[in-house]
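Before a computer can learn anything about folding, someone has to put a protein's shape into writing. The outcome of that step, for a single protein, is printed below:
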Amino acid sequence: MRVLLLENIHEDGAEFLRAQGYQVETRKGALGEDDLVEAVQGVHLLGIRSTTYVTERVLASAPDLLSIGAFCIGTNQIDLKAAAQRGVAVFNAPYSNTRSVVELAIGEIISLARRLHEKTNDMHAGVWNKSAQGSHEIRGRKLGIVGYGNIGSQLSVVAEALGMQVFYFDIADKLALGNAKRCATIDELLETVDVVTLHVDGRPGNAGLFGAAEFARMKPRSLFLNLSRGILVDTKALRAHIESGHIAGAAVDVFPVEPKKQGDPFESDLRGLPNVILTPHVGGSTMEAQQDIGRFVAGKLHSYLAEGSTDLSPNLPHLQLPSYGEHHRLVHIHHNVPGVLSAINVVLGDHGVNIDGQTLGTRGDIGYVLTDIDKQLEPETLTALGTLPETIRLRQLS
């Protein structure tokens, strides 16, 4: 089995897969679509981070590809539907770098409130500017969190422990942690808080979530952070509101267009602004988080290939089938229409195969069946299952 890992995925992930017997190739940078189409030929497992985009064209050119690991939180860089329709399981790390992003957000809120970015630049320029002007504590300030998922909710707890009053907005009905207060609308949040921080995903409907109208609704001299997705924010509008003084400072870690690899030039409307912290998409880039992500996602990829487990997959039904005794396992991904499970079992029965265990799950228009059987299937049985009109992908595990 060949594995291709891109974008400096932690070596622990590569070493884990090598230890399981995979042939692993690693590359430092991201790949564009044309280069990726060429690179995935003959590859069974693909590992990426946030800069490599796996499009329908890439998937169509990779018939051997069984699974994709996003060694990060987000999966918007992968065409999840197209992957499912081709029987390619996707896995990510929804929790592993949560703490790293939260700590960066807290550090940047403090830095912006104290205007540390400007003061350190002055010191490096030889200017001694010892003044409390424009510097504030964060204790008692109101923090507004847009998106109360894994990161937003943990940020809520840490910020409250530091004495901040927390407000949040989420389109889902999320339980408030601690003393956090839910806002009915995003406008209510913007008009209430002193600091706004975005922690939502990069689905297409969220593109342009924050523009001139949203910045105008924020309280004068408030702070803004985006450590989630670059497509969410109109950076020209943010620049205009910083230059006007309406926004007192900002921290941005993600951008609409990001360099593909280390050393490539970086361009942004936000360069050169006072009290603006720009970081190169490093919210989850701590050694602890990257090591944990490497191990976690590599483990998910191996569990899928070895056992058919799709636990936490964002594009396939979540199935795990406990293993009891000696058996062989079938992995069957299919179009979700009535009668598929029955058709599978009829084929197995007609070929004298006994079923030891079986589980079915569906997700939208995709169905997934794990079946443990008492013997390895003959080629004609595999052919009969593989040629069922609903079959997308069939694998027999030892």
